[in-house]
C-alpha cells in the first residue's frame, strides 16, 4: 500500500471526516464523496509524476524519454495545483503530506541543478570566481588604496616612536615582536625559524591562520552593509598593523628578509583581504546608489556577485594558510622566497584573467 492509498484508508474505514471550510455541518457521506472525487480525478497524474521522479532519482535524468521530460513540468504544476486545492478544503493529512513530498521531489528534479557538486565547484573556480573579480576593478583599487594608506601610516608612526607598536598591534599578533626585540631574535625565531614539523605546520598553525584570516576577511565584506565606511577603516587598520611590523624590522636592518618572508604567503593572503574589501564596497555602492532598482532589489542582484568573490577569497586564504603554516619555513633563502612570491603573483594574475576572451565574444561565463 502506497502513501497515497494510506491517505484515504482512514476515511473509507469510517475514520473521522475532514472539515471542509464553510460546510462543517454538511453530511459525512457528502464529505467522503468529495474526497473520493478529488482523488479519482487526479490520482493518475500523481502516480505518473511519482513514477517519473522515482526513475530519475534512481537512474538519473537519462532514464526518461524526451517526451516524458517535456511532460514532467506539466505534471509537476498539476500536482502543485492539487496540493493548493487540497490545503484549501482541508483533505486528509496523509494525502497532504504525500502531495507535499511529491511536489518537493518533483521540483528538485525539474528545476534543480543539473551538475554534480564537483562539477559545480569546478564551474565556480574556473569561471564564476574570476569573472566576478574582473567586474569589480574600481572597488579593488579603492580597497587596495585603503590598505596601502594604512601601511604607510603604520610605518611612519612606529618609525618615529616604536612605543606605538604595542598600541597598534594586538598582543596575539605581536608574539613577542616589539620595541625590545633584537635583529638576531627576529632571524632566529621568525624569519629563519626551523620547520616545526608536519603536524604543527600544516594542521595546528595553518588551521589557526585560516580561521583568523577568514574571520577578518568576511568581516570586511559584512561591514559593507554600513555604507562601506567600516570596511575601509578595517582595511586601513590591517595596513596599520603591517606597517608597524615593517617599521620594527626596517629599524633592525632586516627589512629585505622580512619582505621576502612576508611575500611568500602575503601575495595570496593580502590579495584575499583586498578582494573581500572590494566585495564589501560593491555591496555599499549598490545600497547607496541602487539605480533604477530599489535598494533591496539592487542588493539581491549584486549580492550574489559579492558572495562569489568572498567565497573564492576564503579559498585563497586556505591556500595562504597552507603556504604560511608549512611551506614558508621550508624555503629558507630570501631570494627563493621572492621567486616563489613572484611565481604566485603571476599565477593569480593569469587565473583572474582567464575567460576574458569568452566574455569578449559574448560567451557565458
TrEMBL record:
Keywords: Membrane, Transmembrane, Transmembrane helix
One Pfam family of this chain: SpoIIM
InterPro entries per the UniProt record, alphabetical: SpoIIM-like
Transmembrane region(s): 136-158, 217-246, 258-284, 305-323, 335-353
Disordered, as annotated region: 1-20
Name of the protein described by the UniProt record: Membrane protein
